[in-house]
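#onboarding

Welcome to the new folks! Below is a worked example of what a typical request in this channel looks like: someone posts a single protein sequence, and someone else replies with the predicted structure as tokens. Don't worry about understanding the tokens yet, we'll cover that in week two.

Example request:
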Amino acid sequence: MTGTRVFVARLTGSGVFDPAGDRLGRIRDVLVVYRKDNAPRVVGLLAELPGKRRVFISIGRVSSIGSGQVITTGPISDRKFEQRGGEVRLLAEFLGRKVTFNDGSGEAEIEDAAIEETGPGEWAISQLFVRRPRQAGAPFAKGPTALVPWSLITEKTEAGEPQSAEALIATYSELRPADLANTLLDLPQERMLEVAEELPDDRLADVLEEMDESDQIEIMAQLDDERAADVLDEMEPDDAADLIAQLPEERGEHLLELMEPEEADDVRLLLSFGADTAGGLMTPEPIILSAESTVAEGLAMIRRNETAPALAAAVCITLPPYESPTGRFLGMVHFQRMLRYPPHERLGALIDPGLEPISVDTPAAEVSRILASYNLVSVPVIDENHRLVGVVTVDDVLDYLLPDDWRSHDDEDTPASAAMSKRAPKKRPAKKSAAPTAKPATRGRRG
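Example response:
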């Protein structure tokens, strides 16, 4: 009996639905076990439920796979995923492996695998999409591809050996940073560190910003100082400051010396403030323009791809210089107000007169009350000379208010509201003589 053929790389991200059509989650991987004389058998799917929980769905509880969706026979267990001995994840560990053709025609690399229903509730790998090495004399061309049955190839690596890190990175290239961070934390520790080392600097920076401090420190410990400094350059200054504050003082200072001077200055500024103050929470790179700038110029600055949405909500108006710490702070102009005026209108005439800046030593609790009371997305921060040094955005405050383990918070754990009410304010350590003891990385487990 044969059924639908599904390519694994296209299956990732597909929705999981119950028989009534209600969405349960989305697929993240396929698990197989090797067999002596036949192609690897599919034992189940790795799914992500709302709340980032990773669970195992036995293939016997799957009624159909295809058309970008997976239908289950009923409710699925919400127990955490744990990869068992002998199981191989196709996306995370299989794609990218080397194979040889049994007819002696050469080698190839696995780029995708097709699974096929072989019986009621039974699936197995049926074919592999492989790419041969590129031909001599064509250095910029890719090698030819082929779709071959499992029976016609032999793996060069031992069963269970992971594929190249580059292949895994390519597989997950479309994932958002938060999803990629969760995916990496699902991998065995050695594998996670290997993949992290191969990620581009900007991609690794985005991923680190979505991880707990213990996981950040674990990865940074594996990077040489030059690479670590390059990654810190790509991180948001407040996230980089929080990370450096957790490192041994000697290494933290050395990394600051290796960073780009402008980026290092921003981080040093943030490190000089307590983490539970406006100065410690703020982002030191708001959009800053002069009072003579026009609405057209303000909107052009907001439209830049690298501008975070919270920072794009308003433009800060100051006297020169226009980089923090600036000249005297004059006020803010919200983007919605700019939309109501012609492009040539001066921003100085559109300043919000009711928005008062806060000082760098304003307590974080007071900052959160200000944002909530006046329905603000951001609030400007000034020093004792009334110079703009940064802005605190709503996401800065949320990151402060949420419990330390919010990224791994489970639905059945203590409600977030209770956790926040009991949460002690974060404190950046001023000096450290040794790295903090890293907690075990939080990874999914199947009970």
